[in-house]
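Handout, section B. The chain below has 120 residues.
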Amino acid sequence: FEGGLVSLLAERVLGPIAKALFRDWIRHPELTDRFAFTVRYEASGDTALAEHADASCVTLNVCLGHQVAGRPAFKGGDLLFRGVRFKDEGASAMAQQAVQHRLGSALIHMGQHLHQATHI
C-alpha cells in the first residue's frame, strides 16, 4: 500500500500542491516519507476521531465510502480544525472551524494542524 497509488499521489499531486501552499514549512526538495492511514467508520466500530495532529508535514484527507440510493451511506464525519502546533501560539485553545467533508472530496492540510472527525 505504501508504493503504487500512495507514491504516485505524493509525487505528482500532493507534493507540488503542498510545496506551493506550505513553502515556509516544507524545507526538503521532496516529500520522501509516505504513510497511508485509514479509519473505517461504522456503527459497530469507529464512529469519530478525537482531536490530534498527524506525524507528517502534509496530510491528504480523502472522504471514501459508498452511496445508497444515490446518497452517502452516512451522515456526519465533518472535519474540525484548530490552530497549527509549533506555528500558532495557543493552537489547542483556538476556536474550532468546521469543514464539511463530502463523499469523494479531498482536503490537504499541514500535518501539525489540530483536527478531528465528527461523529457519524
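Note. The CA atoms of residues 38 and 61 lie 9 Å apart. Compare this with the example in section A.
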